[in-house]
Amino acid sequence: MNICMLFQEYYPSDFRIEKEARTLIGAGHKVFLICQRRKSEPPYETVDGLRIYRVDEYPLRGDLLFFQTLYYNPRRFQRLCEIIDSENIHALHAHDLPTVLTAARAAKKYGLPLVFDMRENYPVGILYWKKRRPWHLLVSNVWLARLAERICIRLADRIIVVSDEQWDRMVSFGAGDKTRIIMNTVDLSFLHANVSKTTPKPLQGFVAVYTGMLNRHRGLDTVISAMPLVRKSVPSARLKVVGDGNTKPELERLTEQLHLNDYVEFLGWADIPTMYGHIQESSVGVIPHRKNPHTDSTIPNKLFDYMALGKPVVASDLKPLRRIITETDCGRIFQPDDPKSCAQALIECSDLSRATAFGKNGQRFVATKYNWQTAANTLLDVYRSL
Q: What are residue 316's DSSP bridge partners?
């Protein structure tokens, strides 16, 4: 089968597409991708068997905002039609809400099946991703996003979601029968290949690590505010932050105000082997996301990274995180936005025997259940059912 994916962002930069493409190509399918183009990138290239077609965005900001508001992109539709004609495409795979209506129009024109890869609760997410400016009332209009989502759910032949909580949403919309769960679990072969490229330093003291974006709904300020309390019980406690984002200056100021400059380290973005090395050199992985309808239905990749590398997990009390951490007994839950609760959870994980048990539990569940090798079978079943 020849499959064409649509993605609104740049590539390569997305683990989910990489894993899905690798799985489908390995099963004998041909996979094509239409995505956004940076000026420095070629309009076409093949990366690990994935044939990538990049499309320039509209040069005028007003045009771009107009089509973002409609959740439809004429340029990508035109390119998609060209690829369908030239490459004999058999199925379309749209990643996230902004690409689905474009794909749906092409699917209807050519009589092709459409897979809607719903990574998150997009209509709710836009409330937390962007700063609220006047023009965001259109681009980030929740009512329009919900309307677009309902239409896309109806038009899609198959829907892929990342959590049980998202599946429950699809059931409430009457789409449970055509929905499958494929979580953002870790590819064990990919992890082992990258871990082998690093030589972790011996662990010194009690080190918590956070990996990922730095923005308000990630809640890293809660962990930083908890550190003085943690250090009263665990004087060796430190925090490593691997990532970047728009709240980094604010978090650095908070670190300075709390006199934690020697104990909180901002390391910026790191490549995959280096990131895994930082996790290996830590005692516990933290996921301090704030609670809202978006975070209550998504599962961050870092959860499975921490578990796979044998680290206990300290996470805020969000439905998917509580469910998995309770099931696997791989860590502790704390109340979101509560530094005291976060500190207590970290202190409990500073006990070596408890932390070791949590880490082994997490590794065992990743090896047997929460891994991409298991999820890949579901993806292949989706395409066999079209």
A: 334
Residues 37 and 8: their CA atoms lie apart, in Å, by 10
pLDDT single digits (tens) 294-350: 999 999 999 999 999 999 999 999 999 999 999 999 999 999 999 999 999 999 999
Listed residue (13, 375, 11, 69) closest to 213, CA to CA: 13
Neighbours of 125 (CB within 10 A): 23
> Is there a shared CATH topology between the 2-185+372-384 domain and the 188-368 domain?
yes
> What does the domain layout of the chain look like in residue ranges?
2-185+372-384, 188-368
* Cβ pair 298, 305 in contact under 8 A: no
188-368 CATH fold:
Rossmann fold (3.40.50)
Walk across the sheet containing 2-6 and list its strands: 44-47, 50-55, 30-36, 2-6, 91-95, 114-118, 158-161, 179-181
**363 touches 308 (CB < 8 A):** yes
CATH 3.40.50.2000, applies to 2-185+372-384 = yes
d(CA 65, CA 139): 7
Peptide bond before residue 273 is cis, with ω within 30 degrees of 0: no
Q: Is the dihedral of CA 12, 220, 281, 315 positive or negative?
A: negative
Mind spelling out the 3-state secondary structure of 253-301?
Answer: HHHHHCCCCCCEEECCCCCHHHHHHHHHCCCEEEECCCCCCCHHHCCCH
Sign of CA dihedral 27, 32, 35, 40: positive
Token pair recorded at residue 56: 């320039």
Reported as a single tens digit per residue, the pLDDT across 265-279 is 999 999 999 999 999
The rounded distance, in Å, linking the Cα atoms of 267 and 275 is 10
pLDDT digits (tens, 9 = 90+) for 193-229: 999 888 888 888 999 999 999 998 899 999 999 999 9
Q: Tokens for 289, please give them.
A: 């996301």
DSSP-derived letter for residue 203 is P
What does the DSSP assignment read for 117-154? Answer: EE-S-HHHHHHHHS---TTHHHHT-HHHHHHHHHHHHH
Condensed to tens digits (0 to 9), the pLDDT of residues 116-136 reads 999 999 888 877 765 544 445
Helix (H) or strand (E) holding 302: helix 301-308
How far apart CA 359 and CA 381 sit, in angstroms, is: 32
